[in-house]
Each structure stands twice: as structure tokens, then as C-alpha cells.
């Protein structure tokens, strides 16, 4: 990914539009991310700064970031020094991957003072550093190792910029000057601020000088924020200039701004990564539990199959009892006519030579009763295992469709209540469990609500909905409960198809076609006593077949 010094130059130019803004709020959504709310007259934007390795950057953002209930210490420190401070300058040393945000604020004595926030966006060394007016480090997001680091990044140390390479600046040197010097080296080692992507683009052209002149012009003008998509349609690379080296299978899209481009490139990837990271432990727990349950169910089904012939045990007992006078004590088997068969064929019954014929009959009767009890117990346990697998599938499906950290927090709460994980006793339950329900409006104006997870499914179906509302769920597959709030009124086929499509889209069958969706009035949907969250039974249903339309 080409977040090189040249691209950062274009971002820096965009950030200069925020000069004279005051810092309204500061958040730290994750360990490596900061969000500043900047305001001035007719200007209100969020500035994202992240030092996350492989995704380090800063730009204006429209993405939503969830914030921890308790702000981290570095966030509290930034609020102390920068809350209400005014952004007075945005600097980039040459074309280095460093941006300095200069603020004017008031210290504890009421004096106007200058505070700098240095954003070092250098690969695995990315950092965010707060510096006072004397050039001393107040603190930083990451501290250096005092024994091994070449630069000291610790509170109280004097800040020094990263060492600069001796390269030509394309904003100050001509294309010819750069190419002349590159003859004794490589272009990458000659030009400042250009990534390997840009250098390959120049070197691969028939006329490198013309290509370099165009790229320098794009760098100065900022007219070509370009995002490159791979053949699968996924964001692949980005640049401040057009890129042609990947061929026709790679599509490009031009954006209005560089911030908008970065939002598009990182937004979906990081949201998914953030969710996966937050849910990693519960995904592992649920997957392991599911594997154990499947193995246990397999063993129980095997034992249950052995019980299928238990009726023979009773018949053997009855036949021995009916033929006691014909069976010698100490015999190892008895051959007797089978009165329970139409053909009265002779059956050979194994006997215990240490028991009398009467006791052998009693032994078979006892085995019959024991097997009957085992069969009833196994039927109950296998059904319980099957229901648990359905529930675990529904949890994994909910995690897969989660879009926010709040969604994951709700699933954790659900698993804690179900006994799969320990409840965090030090934290209060979220009061916002149901404040993010997915709500839609049908063509007839009826409200349609879709659950995101099992707790929301329960809430929608058993609390919000009334008997006359219409309930939808994919047939025999994990998915969301969907309710059309029609209060017993007749709804059109169009509304039924809309709700059914939402049910299919928000289910494990979201990538399938011709998905069966059951629907029925809420009065026919029941939650059995002791059932896990989201588990219901329903009757008097109809079925409609729809094709999901992707996330709605």
C-alpha cells in the first residue's frame, strides 16, 4: 500500500483546510487510534490518526468509531493539553512520512502556549508524539527501548525527527534531474517520497521522463486520488496518480479527496478486522464447544442405534419363560420356536451357563428395562445436543454479521447469561442493548425490525411484537428474527417478500438463492421454558422463497 511521503503531502494539503479549527473532542477508540473532532465556522470534521502497523495514516474521516467507556491514559493526556486548542499549522518535513500538527492552547497558568502533535507514519515504527513549546516530549503513544533505540522517545527527552535519507525532492527537482541521478542508482534510492509502486510505474513506461513529469504534476495538483481494485473487486492499492501497471483485470476509481479514498480503502477492512479481533476468543470458544458437542452427539447416536433391537431382549425373556421345562440347567443356548413370528421359526437364544433358565429369562427382562431407560435418556440427551448445535450456529452467524463492537458486547452478554463464559462482575450491563435494532419501513408504511443477535431476537419476538404482528425466519437455518408490525392487519405480498428477503439476507443463507423463509403471526410463535436465547417453536406457518440482496 502506497502511503508514501508523496501521498502524505497531498493529505497534508487537505488537512490545512482545518487550520483555525478548535479541538472539540478527542477520542481513542483503540490502542493505536485517535479521533479529533475539529470545528470552526462552516467546518466540522473528524480527523483520524492511527499508528497501527500496516495501516498507519491520518486523514479526515466519515467513518464511525466506537469509544471505550473509560478513556485510555494517553487520551486523557491529550484532552488535558489540546481540548479547545486551535490548530494553527500543518507541517510535513520535505516529503517525509511525518506530519506535525501545531496547536495554540492555554496552559495551567492561563498563558498561550504552543503544543505540537507529531505523527510519524513509518511502517512498523509508527508513533504519535506530544511535544511542548521547548521541543521536549510530554508523552507518546509508544515508548522506545532506552537500551536499543537509536532515537529516544520517552517523556522528558528532546524530540528529534527521524533520520532523513539523501534523496531528491520531486517538488523541487525536475524530472530530468531525478532521472540523471537515478542512472547511477535506482529510482527508488534517488527520489524522495515515492514508494516502489510509483517507481515501478515510471520505470515500466516507454518514456520514463514523460511518465515522471505527469506524476510530479499529479503530486502538485492533487487531481488524481486513485483507488485500485483487484479482479475480485476488493480494494488493492491506492495512489495520488493513475496506475496502469496491473493490467486490465484491475479496475481503478477516482475519488474527490484523498481522505475519502483512504476511508474507502481502510474502512471495511478495518471494521471487519476490529470485529474479528474483539470476537476472536468467543469464536474459538464456540467453535471448540461445537466440536465437542458434535463428537458427543455422534457417540450418543451410536449408543442409541444399539437400543433399536431392545425388543428382542423382551422376546427372548418371554420365550425362555414359556419353555422353562425344555431347557436344561447349564446349557449355553436354547433353541425354541418363536411364537412372535408368523412363521414360528426356531430361534437360538444365548444363555448364561451359571444361571438357571428362569434367571436367564429374568436377566433378559432386566436388560430390556435397562435398555428402555437408556433409550429414553439418550433421546433426551441427543435432542439437547442437537438444540445446542443449532444455538451455537446461531451465535457464530450473529458474530459473522456483527458490524460494531457493541454487537460483540451484546453477544458476550448473551453467552455469559447462557453460562458459556464468565460474566464480568466489575462492569454494569449495557443499558444500550437494544438501542441499535435494525429498522426498516415496508412499502405500505409498516415498521419492520430485524434482530442482530439472539438477545435482540428474543426482545423483538417476545417483548416488542404483539399477537397480530407477522414473524419471519429462514427455514431450518440460523438467522435473525424479523417482525412486521402490522397489528393483525392484512399485508401485501410485496411487504411479505420484503420481510422475507430481510430474513434471508440476515441469515446464514445470505449468499444462497431461492431461500425458504417461514412466516406466521406472532401468536403462533412460542418460546419453550428453559430455551436458550433466540430459540423458539412455531406453527401454522406459510413458506415463501426469496433470494437475498446483500446487506441492507
* Helical fraction: 25-40%
Q: β content, as a range?
A: 15-25%
What CATH first level of the largest domain would be assigned?
Mainly Beta
Number of domains: 4
Please state how the strands of the largest beta sheet are arranged side by side: 15-16-18-17-19-22
- Assign the CATH topology of the largest domain: ibrinogen binding protein from staphylococcus aureus fold
What's the pLDDT, averaged over the residues?
90
What does this molecule look like?
The chain is α+β, with helices and mostly antiparallel strands and 552 residues long. It has 4 domains: 5-140, Roll (ibrinogen binding protein from staphylococcus aureus fold), CATH 2.30.310; 175-256, no CATH class; 304-430; 438-546, no CATH class. It has 12 helices and 22 strands. The protein has helices at 5-15, 73-82, 175-182, 187-190, 196-203, 208-221, 258-306, 310-322, 357-400, 405-417, 454-464, 493-505; strands at residues 22-27, 33-40, 43-50, 57-61, 86-91, 98-106, 112-120, 127-131, 137-140, 226-229, 235-239, 251-254, 333-337, 346-350, 438-441, 447-450, 470-474, 482-485, 515-521, 525-526, 537-538, 542-546. A 6-stranded antiparallel β-sheet has the order 15-16-18-17-19-22, with helices on both faces. The chain has a 5-stranded antiparallel β-sheet with strand order 5-6-7-8-9. The chain is elongated and about 115 Å long.
Task: Provide the descriptors you would attach to this structure in a database record.
single chain, 552 residues, ibrinogen binding protein from staphylococcus aureus fold, 4 domains, 6-stranded antiparallel β-sheet, 5-stranded antiparallel β-sheet, 12 helices
Amino acid at each position: 500500500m502506497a502511503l508514501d511521503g508523496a501521498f502524505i503531502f497531498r493529505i497534508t494539503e487537505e488537512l490545512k483546510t482545518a487550520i483555525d479549527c478548535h479541538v472539540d473532542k478527542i477520542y481513542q477508540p483503540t490502542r493505536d487510534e485517535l479521533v479529533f473532532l475539529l470545528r470552526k465556522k462552516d467546518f466540522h470534521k473528524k480527523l483520524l490518526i492511527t499508528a497501527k502497523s500496516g495501516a498507519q495514516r491520518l486523514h479526515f474521516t466519515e467513518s464511525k468509531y466506537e469509544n471505550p467507556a473509560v478513556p485510555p491514559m494517553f487520551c486523557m493526556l491529550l484532552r488535558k493539553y489540546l481540548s479547545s486548542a486551535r490548530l494553527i499549522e500543518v507541517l510535513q518535513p520535505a516529503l517525509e512520512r511525518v506530519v506535525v500538527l501545531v496547536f495554540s492552547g492555554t496552559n495551567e497558568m492561563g498563558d498561550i502556549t504552543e503544543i505540537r502533535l507529531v505523527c510519524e507514519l513509518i511502517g512498523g515504527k509508527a508513533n504519535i508524539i506530544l511535544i511542548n513549546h521547548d521541543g521536549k516530549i510530554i508523552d507518546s503513544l509508544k515508548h522506545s527501548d532506552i537500551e536499543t533505540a537509536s532515537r529516544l522517545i520517552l517523556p522528558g527527552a528532546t524530540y528529534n525527527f527521524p533520520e532523513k535519507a539523501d534523496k531528491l525532492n520531486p517538488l523541487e527537482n525536475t524530472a530530468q534531474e531525478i532521472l540523471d541521478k537515478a542512472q547511477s542508482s535506482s529510482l527508488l534510492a534517488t527520489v524522495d517520497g515515492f514508494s516502489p509502486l510509483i517507481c515501478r510505474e515510471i520505470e515500466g513506461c516507454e518514456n520514463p521522463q514523460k511518465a515522471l513529469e505527469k506524476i510530479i504534476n499529479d503530486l502538485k495538483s492533487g487531481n488524481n486520488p486513485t483507488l485500485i481494485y483487484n479482479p475480485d473487486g476488493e480494494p488493492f492499492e491506492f495512489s495520488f496518480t493513475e496506475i496502469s501497471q496491473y493490467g486490465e483485470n484491475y479496475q481503478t476509481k477516482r475519488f474527490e479527496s484523498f481522505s475519502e479514498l483512504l476511508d474507502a480503502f481502510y474502512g471495511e477492512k478495518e471494521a471487519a478486522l476490529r470485529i474479528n479481533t474483539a470476537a476472536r476468543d468467543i469464536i474459538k470458544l464456540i467453535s471448540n464447544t461445537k466440536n465437542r458437542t458434535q463428537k458427543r452427539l455422534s457417540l450418543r447416536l451410536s449408543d442409541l442405534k444399539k437400543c433399536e433391537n431392545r425388543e428382542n431382549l423382551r422376546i427372548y425373556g418371554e420365550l425362555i419363560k414359556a419353555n422353562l421345562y425344555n431347557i436344561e440347567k447349564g446349557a449355553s443356548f436354547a433353541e425354541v420356536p418363536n411364537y412372535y413370528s408368523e412363521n414360528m421359526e426356531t430361534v437360538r437364544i444365548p444363555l448364561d451357563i451359571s444361571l438357571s433358565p428362569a434367571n436367564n429369562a429374568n436377566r433378559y427382562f432386566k436388560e430390556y428395562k435397562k435398555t428402555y431407560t437408556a433409550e429414553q435418556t439418550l433421546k433426551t440427551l441427543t435432542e439437547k445436543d442437537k438444540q445446542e448445535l443449532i444455538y451455537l450456529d446461531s451465535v457464530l452467524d450473529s458474530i459473522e454479521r456483527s458490524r460494531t463492537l457493541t454487537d460483540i458486547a451484546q453477544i458476550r452478554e448473551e453467552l455469559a447469561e447462557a453460562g458459556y463464559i464468565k460474566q464480568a462482575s466489575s462492569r454494569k450491563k449495557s443499558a444500550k442493548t437494544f438501542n441499535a435494532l435494525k429498522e426498516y419501513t415496508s412499502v405500505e408504511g409498516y415498521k419492520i425490525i430485524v434482530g442482530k443477535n439472539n438477545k435482540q431476537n428474543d426482545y423483538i419476538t417476545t417483548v416488542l411484537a404483539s399477537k397480530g404482528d407477522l414473524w419471519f425466519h429462514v427455514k431450518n437455518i440460523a438467522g435473525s428474527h424479523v417482525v412486521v408490525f402490522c397489528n393483525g392487519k392484512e399485508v401485501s405480498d410485496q411487504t411479505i417478500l420484503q420481510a422475507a428477503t430481510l430474513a434471508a439476507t440476515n441469515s446464514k443463507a445470505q449468499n444462497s438463492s431461492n431461500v425458504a423463509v417461514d412466516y406466521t403471526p406472532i401468536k403462533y410463535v412460542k418460546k419453550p421454558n428453559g430455551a436458550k436465547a433466540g430459540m423458539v417453536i412455531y406453527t401454522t406457518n406459510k413458506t415463501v422463497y426469496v433470494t437475498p440482496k446483500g446487506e441492507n
